[in-house]
Design a protein that fits this description.
With 252 residues, the chain is α/β, with parallel strands linked by helices. The chain contains 9 helices and 10 strands. The protein has helices at 52-59, 84-88, 106-117, 122-135, 151-163, 181-196, 208-214, 232-237, 242-251; strands at 12-23, 26-37, 41-45, 67-72, 75-76, 91-94, 169-173, 200-204, 217-222, 225-230. The strands form 2 sheets. It has a 6-stranded mixed sheet, with helices on both faces. A 4-stranded antiparallel sheet has the order 2-1-4-5, with helices on one face.
Length: 252
């Protein structure tokens, strides 16, 4: 585990350098060096409280880092002079909870931000929304309301909504943890299709099968640090660090 800062990477869509985050006196992130290359899928695993979600939220400035840098396609979004909303517009985010508007149809859920933020006209926004519903296998649900959908369908709508903003990368924060087990597969299948299309993805997950099959790299975090990272097979089947071995022995 290296303590030397990672030099800026020319190919990095996400480049986190010496990131520290405190909540009061509690240091949650302890000098994280982390990157995701353009077109790469990186899964971040680790026990609850290890700092995974905080790292993810720092990547698009939902949390402000205490110190360190976060570069998105070379732009330092921790710089006070940066247009954070402009950079954030390039990042799609999918949370544990679906955060759909219950009083709006699926189609309206997918068009409202397109029209307000990207200033698309109604016809263009609706066409893009329908195209993205097709990508997640929900073309027939455009006129339905969130309450008429299963949890898995709602999460796929949330993915389609994020895609409708034409993001350059996608962040997923435990996207299946609120779902019944039988609904998890349909969401992971939608994410797998995105990966096959070449989408840059950072995925905080406890789905080890997904990490093994889809990730280019798996990062294990514990105690606010990156303990170990490697390709999925190497990390999951032959971990080098004792903390990684202990974690995997409990979850695999």
């Amino acid at each position: 585990m290296s303590e030397t800062p990672t030099p800026p990477r020319a190919d990095a869509a996400i480049d986190v350098q010496q990131l520290h985050k405190y909540f009061g006196d509690l240091e949650v992130l302890k000098g994280i060096d982390f990157h995701v290359s353009t077109g790469e899928v990186v899964c971040v695993i680790g026990p609850s409280g290890s700092g995974k979600s905080t790292l993810l939220r720092c990547v698009n400035r939902l949390e402000d880092p205490t110190s360190g840098k976060v570069l998105i396609n070379g732009t330092d979004i921790t710089d006070p002079n940066v247009d954070v909303n402009g950079v954030r517009a390039t990042i799609g985010m999918v949370f544990q909870q679906f955060n759909l508007f219950p009083h709006l149809s699926v189609l309206r859920n997918l068009t409202i931000a397109q029209r307000r933020v990207l200033k698309r006209d109604r016809a263009e926004a609706e066409q893009i929304a329908r195209d993205n519903l097709e990508r997640v296998g929900l073309s027939e649900k455009a006129e339905a309301y969130p309450g008429q959908l299963s949890g898995g369908q709602q999460q796929r709508v949330a993915i389609a909504r994020a895609l409708s903003m034409n993001p350059e990368m996608m962040l997923f924060d435990e996207p299946t943890s609120a779902l019944d087990p039988e609904l998890v597969g349909e969401v992971l299948s939608s994410m797998q299709r995105l990966a096959q299309e070449g989408m840059t993805m950072m995925v905080v997950t406890h789905e080890m099968g997904f990490a093994r099959e889809v990730a280019d790299r798996v990062v294990f975090m514990d105690g606010g640090v990156v303990v170990e990272e490697n390709d999925p097979v190497s990390l999951l089947e032959d971990p080098q660090e004792e903390r990684t071995k202990q974690f995997l022995s409990m979850v695999l």
